Amino acid sequence: MKVSIRTVDEKIFSGTAIEVTLPGMFGKIGIRPHHATLSAVLSSGEILVNQTKGQKSFTLNAGIAHVNKNTVDILLSS
């Protein structure tokens, strides 16, 4: 699935993943291919992007995520 992590000013990550773990307001949210449409407010924590070649992690203070049609768009607060 396609993953995009950005702020209003810059693109932080763009690529593909086999799984994404997000820090939701009430716990971790695991996203895999063909996940149902979802919008979520993110709390401070770590985004984990699992790729076939390894894992990347990104720290955030707050943000929002939208999942739709094998695409995960994450907007972080600056």
Please give a structural write-up.
It is a single chain. This protein is an all-beta fold. The protein has a single domain, classed as ATP Synthase, domain 1. It has strands at 2-6, 11-16, 19-24, 27-31, 38-42, 45-51, 54-60, 63-68, 71-76. The radius of gyration is 11 Å and the shape is globular. It starts with a strand and ends with a strand.
Which structural traits does this protein have?
five-stranded mixed beta sheet, ATP Synthase, domain 1, 78 residues, four-stranded antiparallel beta sheet, mainly beta
Based on CA inertia axes, which overall geometry fits? globular
| Helicity, as a percent range | under 10%
Give the H and E element order: EEEEEEEEE
Subunit organisation of the chains: single chain
Q: pLDDT below 50 for ≥5 consecutive residues: which ranges?
A: none
Which structural class fits the helix and strand makeup? Answer: mainly beta
- How much of the sequence lies in strands comes to over 45%
* CATH topology description: ATP Synthase, domain 1
Mean pLDDT score? 96
CATH architectural name: Sandwich
- Strand arrangement in the largest pleated sheet: 2-1-9-8-5
CATH evolutionary superfamily: F0F1 ATP synthase delta/epsilon subunit, N-terminal
* Main sheet: strands, sense, barrel: 5 strands, mixed
Total count of domains: 1
| Count of individual helical segments | 0
